Amino acid sequence: MAAWPEEPECGRLGTEALAFRQLRDLVATQEALIERLRLRIAIQEENFVRKEDYEAVVKKLEKEEEEHSKTKILLAKEAEKLQFALGEIEVLSKQLEREKQIFEKALSNVKSKALKESTKKDKLISKCNEIESHIMKQEDLLNDKENEIKELQQFITKQKQTLKTQVSDLKIQKQQESYIAQVLEKKQKKGLK
Questions:
Q1: Which 3 state secondary structure label does DSSP give 27?
Q2: What string of pLDDT tens digits covers the 193 residues of the chain?
Q3: Are 4 and 24 in contact (CB under 8 A)?
């Protein structure tokens, strides 16, 4: 009995693998039948069987051998198809692995970039908070200065008003003194006459 290649292990080729097994089983069955027929012919030849029986058995054997030959050819074609399909699966698996590696590398790069951007964003937020705090302090300082300026302006306004009042009082006092001086001078002139 001829030895056939072992069945390839691949769950993804369901129908082709099943056909391969069925054809292999059929070939084995046919080979066993042929062997039985040969033995039968040999026994019949020893026992001097009738010519008609012998010819019938020979025709049956020839027919079985012809069927066996066709089945072997069909099995070889199916085995070739199966090998081709396995080759395609191997190529596709390698391509898928390459694409997976490319994707994982791209994903790793994106994650790394996102982490850097996140760190950069956090630093910017921290810097913005520092600037905002500094601005608030400066605004508070400015408000204090503005209040101080307003107080000074009010003080200056009061001082101006006080000075105006003092100047006005001085003018009145001078006028009064001038008037008194004139009156005294006139009295003195009259007293001298």
A1: helix
A2: 444 444 444 455 678 888 888 888 888 888 888 888 888 877 766 666 567 877 888 898 888 888 888 989 988 898 899 999 999 999 999 999 999 999 999 999 999 999 999 999 999 999 999 999 999 999 999 999 999 999 999 999 999 999 999 999 899 998 998 888 888 888 877 766 5
A3: yes
In angstroms, what CA-CA distances link 191 with 179, 180, 182, 185? 18, 16, 14, 10
- Residue 42 tokens read as 């040999």
Spacing of C-alpha 132 from chain mean position: 34
Beta-carbon count within 10 A of 52 CB: 8
**Residue 2 CB neighbours (<10 A):** 7
Is pTM beyond 0.70 here? no
